[in-house]
Amino acid sequence: MLSCIQPTGEVHLGNYLGALRNWVSGQHENDVFHGIVDLHALTVTETPGVLGDQTLSLAAMLFAVGLDPDVATVFVQSHLPQHSQMAWIMECTVSYGELSRMTQFKDKAAKREADFVSAGLFTYPALQAADILLYDANEVPVGDDQRQHIEITRDIAIRFNHRFGDTFVLPKAVTPKAGARVMDLQNPENKMSKSASGDAGIVYMLDEPAAIERKFKRAVTDSDSVVAYDREKKPGVANLLEILATATDSSPSAVATKYSQYGPLKSDAGAAVIAMLAPIRSRYQELMNDRSELARLIRRGDDRAEAVAAATLARAHAAIGVLPR
Ligand code: TRP
Fold first, then answer.
1. Separation between Cα atoms, residue 91 and residue 124, nearest integer Å
2. Is CB count within 10 Å lower at the N or C end of the chain?
3. Which of 250, 192, 72 is nearest to 241 (CA)?
4. What is the reported pTM?
5. Diameter of the chain by CA atoms?
6. Is 217 marked active-site?
């Protein structure tokens, strides 16, 4: 099982409750690989010196939330040359027409209008296919926006196997175990997301307790002052109830019965999130203050990942029949 995450932007409560928490609880059920895909982030990064810092910080966060380096394989994509090497093979196995039909490419290229649209943005799915096929992944848990990329990976694998003989495992997109759908505290109709307009509705994992408290106090609710769990009619209140329920292992409707006013609900939700994040923040700080330990944990994942990736790449080279060096 493989899931990957780009080191762009700060990790927030939506990422944690929606996905990362499931990664942690799923690590004992499957043989899991988690790639920090910094090469994919190159399609959006132009400032020198930030990518490495973001990669390090994301790695620390993945360990801090509870991925166990003895169990889960957390690796950095650019540390393994096999990803770039395999990506070229993928580029030669996918067609220009197939890549042109990727909706994510069309959307992103259109948004950039006259701005620079790199060839990397176009071949992005080939690099993603390399990530997936290198690990013989059976299942790739992804959101709807990534399904097309898994399907094209499957098509690439089928074509390669047909041309050169059975080499790659055919991957399948699976729906991730439902995480909480955390909404923006200021715009509770929208998912909490780093592409949102402002920071006021986003709770970052590394926010100070005072900032978290403030964000919850200012959370948008509605004007009828009845605490009830109704996502459609009362999205702001429902979001607070869900967050509080998730943080305290309860259910939103059970939590709703305990409150008659918005004020206490907001402060309790804030307090529960602060308590939930406190050990994560301190473990994160500890790792960031001990760079050699953090580097050691990353290297451990890199080494385990590389053993698998190198074997798959060798298999692909042998199937093609490139001249061994
Ligand atoms: N494209 C994915 C995203 O934007 C990230 C990604 C890169 C990925 N390689 C992957 C996801 C391999 C799953 C498997 O979210």
1. 9
2. C
3. 250
4. 0.93
5. 74
6. no
* N- to C-terminal Cα separation, the chain: 32
Cα-to-centroid distance, 112 and ligand 1 (Å): 21
The three-class DSSP label of residue 282 is: helix
**Closest residue to atom 9 of ligand 1, CA basis:** 128
142 Cβ closer than 6 Å to some ligand 1 atom:
yes
177 as an active site residue: the answer is no
- Which one of 15, 36, 104, 142 would you pick to mutate in the ligand 1 pocket, going by the greatest count of ligand atoms within 8 A of its CB? 142
Where are any strands of DSSP class E within the chain? 2-5, 33-36, 73-76, 139-141, 172-174
Ligand 1 centroid – CA 29 distance (Å): 21
* Backbone angles phi and psi of 166, in degrees to 5: -55, 110
Atom of ligand 1 at shortest range from CA of 2: 14
- State which ligand 1 atom lies nearest to the alpha carbon of 127: 9
Classified as helix, coil or strand, 183 is strand
Summarize pLDDT for 67-125 with one digit per residue, the tens. 999 999 999 999 999 999 999 999 999 999 999 999 999 999 998 877 899 999 999 99
Active site (annotated) includes residue 233: no
pLDDT digits (tens, 9 = 90+) for 19-48: 899 899 999 998 999 999 999 999 988 889
Domain 2-179+290-320 and domain 209-285, same fold? Reply is no
Classified as helix, coil or strand, 19 is helix
Task: Return the CATH architecture of domain 2-179+290-320.
Answer: 3-Layer(aba) Sandwich (3.40)
Cβ of 152 less than 6 Å from ligand 1: no
The full set of domain ranges for the chain reads: 2-179+290-320, 209-285
Fold of 209-285: Tyrosyl-Transfer RNA Synthetase (1.10.240)
